[in-house]
């Protein structure tokens, strides 16, 4: 199945003349496939790249020009920047326990000195002057009011984190002291003035900038904010996403039967989108009902609508015709990538977009990371990940013209491609740490491959699934 048609190429005013010419002159396209929920490839030949707004999508067209994979991601980023300018969404105040995964919209400045008083770094004794020392009966615990001052020759038991009594010169660790027959405290190690005391303001002073605008609220950032005196953070709102699951053949429970299959994307996409920074508001099952799909698209006020399946030109592939009828602008209409060739990106309004994912599960993942991830990242004002490469342990067969995205696991200083990487398969991606970007023609063993991290595989912010 093919997805012919014409398309616009995004924010023309964001391109300089040389970039625009490069887009018009880019290399020819390649056969399309992996559409709908079946994944059968059908040959096609390239058409002009320039496309026009509102051009009908004709199933009989034999020419189509898909976008190269890097250019598709760049188009999604341009679209997101334009949408962010159009939406002008105001930052909001969020409690610390709800801030995970958000981006700071204001600098994090210390509201107090850290620590806010001299504290003990260890369990032991607070001592004053040279030893041996006489030990007071009472001890000093964390969270108590300021203790009485010490005079030279005195010591008092102290707990980690407790306020150091005025006059203290050293905190003597428990394992570095002993008491003699008369109850006097003796040091068993060298005593250095100020040791094991955390002085007030050691980490920061009130008003110091701790973190800049644009910092991702990780668990450590939230902890620092709490320590610095914050109850809430000023953050960029999450982009709102509606998910529309298409296909009459999908079951929501039980075993496949009578030509029906289980829906994998309905359960998978919402947590994945949340891990990418989205606020997933609804997941609606539309089936193959064109009227219901149009109604769902035109009544949604989400920043991004994500559809599954229906992006090709089959008898029940309704996404292209509906986008044409409502006057949407196709920014990316097919990508030279395997799996996921028939993915698309459309602008519905100035600040609203639709990402059409293929129906095959791994093809949908490819579309998610190619088009949805850059768009959501910029709308959420998240920092771009640093690109990196690692050598492939095994050779990977490539497509003659298209980029391949292959599930891999990290092993030492390299990555191992996984076997189950067909468009309809999730077994490989479920075990993967990343997707390797394999250029047209394939990659040999030992060749460096660009990697796309999965949001939970890095042990970072991807744990935010709720």
UniProtKB/TrEMBL annotation:
Entries under Gene3D superfamilies matching the protein: MoaB/Mog-like domain (3.40.980.10), MoeA, C-terminal, domain IV (2.40.340.10), Molybdopterin biosynthesis moea protein, domain 2 (3.90.105.10), Molybdopterin biosynthesis moea protein, domain 3 (2.170.190.11)
Region entry Disordered, spans: 1-82
Low complexity compositional bias, start-end: 37-49
UniProtKB keywords: Magnesium, Metal-binding, Molybdenum, Molybdenum cofactor biosynthesis, Transferase
The protein's required cofactors: Mg(2+)
Domain MoaB/Mog, first and last residues per copy: 242-378
Pathway listed: Cofactor biosynthesis; molybdopterin biosynthesis
SMART domains: MoCF_biosynth (SM00852)
Family affiliation: Belongs to the MoeA family.
PANTHER family tied to this protein: GEPHYRIN, MOLYBDOPTERIN BIOSYNTHESIS PROTEIN
Cited function: Catalyzes the insertion of molybdate into adenylated molybdopterin with the concomitant release of AMP.
Protein name per the record: Molybdopterin molybdenumtransferase
Organism in which the protein naturally occurs: Streptomyces lienomycini
């Amino acid at each position: 199945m093919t997805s012919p048609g014409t398309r616009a190429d995004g924010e023309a005013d964001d391109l300089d003349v040389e970039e625009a010419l490069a887009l018009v002159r880019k290399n020819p396209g390649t056969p399309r496939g992996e559409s709908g929920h079946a994944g059968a490839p059908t040959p096609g030949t390239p058409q002009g790249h320039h496309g026009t707004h509102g051009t009908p999508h004709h199933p009989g067209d034999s020419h189509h020009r898909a976008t190269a994979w890097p250019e598709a991601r760049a188009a999604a980023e341009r679209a997101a920047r334009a949408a962010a300018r159009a939406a002008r969404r105001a930052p909001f105040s969020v409690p610390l326990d709800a801030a995970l995964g958000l981006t700071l919209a204001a600098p994090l400045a210390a509201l107090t000195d850290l620590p806010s008083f001299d504290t003990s770094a260890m369990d032991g004794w607070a001592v004053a002057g040279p030893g041996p020392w006489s030990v007071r009966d009472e001890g000093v615990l964390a969270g108590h009011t300021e203790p009485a001052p010490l005079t030279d020759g005195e010591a008092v038991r102290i707990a980690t984190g407790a306020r150091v009594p005025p006059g203290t010169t050293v905190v003597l660790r428990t394992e570095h002291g002993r008491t003699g027959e008369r109850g006097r405290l003796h040091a068993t190690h060298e005593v250095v003035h100020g040791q094991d005391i955390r002085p007030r303001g050691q980490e920061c002073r009130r008003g110091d900038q701790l973190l800049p605008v644009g910092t991702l609220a990780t668990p450590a950032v939230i902890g620092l904010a709490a320590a610095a005196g914050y109850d809430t953070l000023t953050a960029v709102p999450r982009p709102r996403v509606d998910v529309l699951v298409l296909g009459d053949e999908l079951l929501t429970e039980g075993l496949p039967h009578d030509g029906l299959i289980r829906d994998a994307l309905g359960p998978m996409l919402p947590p994945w989108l949340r891990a990418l920074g989205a606020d997933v508001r609804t997941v609606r099952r539309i089936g193959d009902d064109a009227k219901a799909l149009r109604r769902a698209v035109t009544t949604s006020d989400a920043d991004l609508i994500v559809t599954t399946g229906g992006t090709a030109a089959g008898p029940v592939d309704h996404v292209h015709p509906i986008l044409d009828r409502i006057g949407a602008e196709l920014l990316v209409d097919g990508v030279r990538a395997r799996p996921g060739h028939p993915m698309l990106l459309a602008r519905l309004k100035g600040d609203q977009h639709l990402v059409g994912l293929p129906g095959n599960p791994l093809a949908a993942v490819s579309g998610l990371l190619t088009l949805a991830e850059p768009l959501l990242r910029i709308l959420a004002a998240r920092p771009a990940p640093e690109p990196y490469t690692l050598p492939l342990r095994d050779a990977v067969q490539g497509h003659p013209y298209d980029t391949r995205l292959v599930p891999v696991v990290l092993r030492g200083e390299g990555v191992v491609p996984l076997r189950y990487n067909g468009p309809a398969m999730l077994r490989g991606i479920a075990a993967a740490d990343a997707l390797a970007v394999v250029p047209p023609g394939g990659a040999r063993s030992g060749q460096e491959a660009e990697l796309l991290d999965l949001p939970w595989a890095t042990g970072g912010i991807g744990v935010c699934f709720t």
